Amino acid sequence: MLNKGGHLVKAGTYWNLANGNRVRMEQEGALPGSGATRYIKAPVAVMLMAAPVIGLVFAVFLPFIGIAMTVTLIGKKLANAATEAAAGSMSFGWRPIEAYLAGKKRKNEARAKKDDKSAKS
Q: Which residues are registered as beta bridge partners of 55?
């Protein structure tokens, strides 16, 4: 039976599903926490019998969890490298931090002078 925090419940042992804390109610009263906190009423014996099963499930799936985490990490690294490579190969044709105040005319004149000097040498 599922109960929420703040609800009136009978005496018994209640288990917080979010963090696994046990709340022992000696008499009827309200469960601690907000309405988002969920509790399940279960005797200690049932929870002790369920613990090895939960541990077994965790132990069986732990290698798969590790493999999935590794594959996810490698995938993110490869996607990031591909994105950086694609961004590095893009060219906008102009650089916003550079000012071309001299213009093409002066560049051509400078080239001509340079060519004349090299031809005279």
A: none
How far apart CA 107 and CA 113 sit, in angstroms, is: 10
Burial group, residue 14, by CB count within 10 angstroms (0-12, 13-18, 19+):
buried
Q: Left, alpha or beta for 13 (phi > 0: left; psi -120 to 50: alpha)?
A: beta
Nearest to 31 by CA among 43, 54, 19, 14: 14
Structure tokens given for 97: 């931090």
Tally DSSP H helices, then E strands, for the chain. Answer: 2, 6
* pLDDT tens-digit profile, the chain (121 residues): 788 888 888 888 888 888 878 888 888 988 888 888 888 888 878 878 888 998 999 999 999 999 999 999 999 999 999 998 888 777 666 667 766 665 556 666 777 777 777 776 6
The amino acid sitting at 2 is L
How far is 113 from 104, CA to CA, in rounded Å? 14
